[in-house]
Amino acid sequence: MSDQTETKAARDVGVVIQESENNRPVIEAIEQDNPACTISHSPGLVRITAPQRIVITQETVEEKLGREWETHEFQMAIVSYFGNIQEWDDDEIVIAWDH
């Protein structure tokens, strides 16, 4: 039973983003802010997975984009996600499983 609990606690979350010039800085920002993430490329899509949670911060995305970025713009980039949106405000988006 202990092994199942540990496996559940480390369950990956993820997001699939359309690969484009506009989204590349967003992908780079996610990678920077989530050092444990894994990035997989397939034609037209980028899948980012991480153990337990992914955080997308407005500040890092703006640094990568070189302009202001509103978190609602993320809706235009994502194709799908797995996990739960635990927080989505003006400063950051957090995807994680509810335990």
UniProtKB/TrEMBL annotation:
SUPFAM superfamilies: Monooxygenase (hydroxylase) regulatory protein
InterPro entries tied to this protein: MOase_MmoB_DmpM, mOase_MmoB_DmpM_sf
Pfam families: MmoB_DmpM
Domain of life: Bacteria
Residue stretches spanning the membrane: none
Protein family membership: Belongs to the TmoD/XamoD family.
Protein name listed in UniProt: MmoB/DmpM family protein
Record lineage: Bacteria, Bacillati, Actinomycetota, Actinomycetes, Micrococcales
